[in-house]
Amino acid sequence: MTRPELPVIIAGAGWAGLAAAVELSRYDIPVTVLESAKQIGGRARRVPFKPADTGVKASTEATHSTAHTLSVDNGQHLLIGAFESTLSLMRTIGVREQQAFKRINLSLTIMCGPNKTVDLQTPNLPAPLHFVWGLLTANGLSLRERFKALWFYHRLAKQDFTLAEDESCASLFDRHHQSDNVIKTLWKPLCLGSLNTPIDQASAQVFLRILRESLTHTRHDSNLLLPQQDLSAVVPDPAMDFIERRGGSVKLGQRVQQLHINHEEIVGLTLDDRSLKARHVILATPCQVTAKLCQSNPDTAHLGDSLTRLRANPICTVYLQYPEDFSLKQDMLGIVDTVSQWVFDRKIYGQAGLMAVVISGPGKHMTLSNAQLIQTVTSELAQHFPHWPQPLHTMVVRERRATFHCAVNINKIRPANTTPVQGLWIAGDYTNTGLPATLEGAVRSGVRAARRVMESMNE
Ligand SMILES: Cc1cc2nc3c(=O)[nH]c(=O)nc-3n(C[C@H](O)[C@H](O)[C@H](O)COP(=O)(O)OP(=O)(O)OC[C@H]3O[C@@H](n4cnc5c(N)ncnc54)[C@H](O)[C@@H]3O)c2cc1C
Predict the structure, then answer these.
(1) Residue 82: inside a domain, yes or no?
(2) 439 lines ligand 1 (CB under 6 A)
(3) What pLDDT was estimated at residue 67?
(4) Is residue 321 lining ligand 1, measured as CB closer than 6 Å?
(5) What is the domain-level CATH number for residue 180?
(6) Does some domain include residue 448?
(7) Which of 220, 249, 261, 295 has its CA 20 to 30 A from that of 164?
(8) Domain annotation covers residue 139
(9) 261 touches ligand 1 (CB under 6 Å)
(10) How many CA atoms lie within 13 A of 403 on its CB side?
């Protein structure tokens, strides 16, 4: 491969940009990563749990009620065993999985009322028998509901988890005669949790893609990977070290403002205070930023316009610090009929007593003040855990543009990594990986963009 005279420029040090930079660095291609923020990691990064300022920058708003010295994440994340590109990236940069994650068999405990729980545990059986067994023996569902859910799974497996025409998840569940109870306690939490989009709008095709990737190959693909370190320590920090050790650089506070395109070829870009020459650029910026950068140039305006069709959905994480001896029996559990959707016990991070309550998707909670939201979530938890005291410290992190709105037919409008301009590529969770907005989607997209760059160097 011809070694380029100029480094490949990667705009954005989220997981997609860092994955692209690591992939290029592996092959000794020089890279310069330009990140507009003061911190790398993008939408999956460490944030302080302390009241030093008004909160986290960019699209995040955070408030803190009391002094504290912990680090948390800008949002509680969960990965699955099928996220192979992310695991492979971690191996490349020298992060041991056992250090980063607690890996557990797929298990779901959903609280549906003070004394009612749906509980699905998968045993150590080969896939898909483990899931079949889990469904058949799920507590809290009637025998009829379990068989119907199993039949639904069987029908989906027969069609290889694909649909001739996309439809909403709600319509898919309805067409397969899933009861209201099974939808509420099983399919809806899974769908909203993975697509961050209400089930009456969410793409069934994308939901089925997650089921196919996680349930059909090996049991390990459906394992839940619970981070036990903050997210910056899992990939961004070690990725930056790897890039720098290989001679690349990661520069913070460097906002790409404009692309220089000449005769349909990238020739450079403008930062706040200077211009840079470039022959190869990967835009790993968020979709809305990439749209703006593309719209301001005639050669990429059409691509930019099409990106504006992708809408964004929020995710809210409410951190509640209880006394250290309060904990959940499980690492995580779901709650239904409440604003709170999932509760994660952060004791596996060494943060005893700290609960992260996750609220995915749009909803009335986004109009509540932080104080009202904390009050709502705290009293919902008190319904299920009446012996818990008031939390000692609290913090709300609202990511207003956490993911793209994963609507029906979304894959038809998601872009590939290529652009009409020679030397210019795009990467990010919103590109057409078939997956919802996930860390794995971001990493796969970044790696693909890097490979396209290397292929173009060989041409
Ligand atoms: C609260 C929350 C919870 C989530 N939960 C999960 C989960 O449980 N599991 C999961 O797999 N995924 C989850 N996700 C989704 C996952 O975090 C994202 O899909 C992923 O981080 C996106 O990475 P990215 O690199 O594509 O984009 P980003 O992380 O947005 O990276 C883009 C980078 O570009 C930078 N940038 C912006 N403008 C410029 C500019 N002009 N010049 C230079 N740099 C610029 C940004 O600062 C940012 O660092 C969650 C997301 C959030 C917010």
Answers:
(1) no
(2) yes
(3) 43
(4) no
(5) 1.10.3110
(6) yes
(7) 220
(8) yes
(9) no
(10) 28
- Structure token pair of residue 232: 């910056």
Mean pLDDT of 117-122: 95
Residue 290, domain member (yes or no): yes
Does residue 382 sit in the same domain as residue 424?
A: no
Can you give the CATH number for the domain in which 332 is found? 3.90.660.20
- pLDDT reported for residue 69: 67
Structural domain boundaries, residue 369:
46-75+312-404
Mean pLDDT of the chain: 94
396 and 417 fall within a common domain: no
Q: Is the pTM above the cut of 0.90?
A: yes
| Ligand 1 contact via 403 beta carbon (within 6 Å) | yes
Confidence of residue 58 (pLDDT cuts 50, 70, 90): very low
Q: Is the CB of 75 under 6 A from ligand 1?
A: yes
Nearest ligand 1 atom, CA 442: 26
Q: Report pLDDT for 230.
A: 96
Task: Give pLDDT, residue 56.
Answer: 34
Q: Is the CB of 89 under 6 A from ligand 1?
A: no
Query: Distance, CA 404 to ligand 1 centroid (Å)?
Result: 11
Which residue has the least CA distance to atom 10 on ligand 1?
438
**In angstroms, what is the span from residue 262 Cα to ligand 1's centroid?**
30
Q: Are residues 55 and 66 in the same domain?
A: yes
Q: Give distance in angstroms: CA of 43 to centre of ligand 1.
A: 3
Atom 31, ligand 1: residue with shortest CA distance = 14
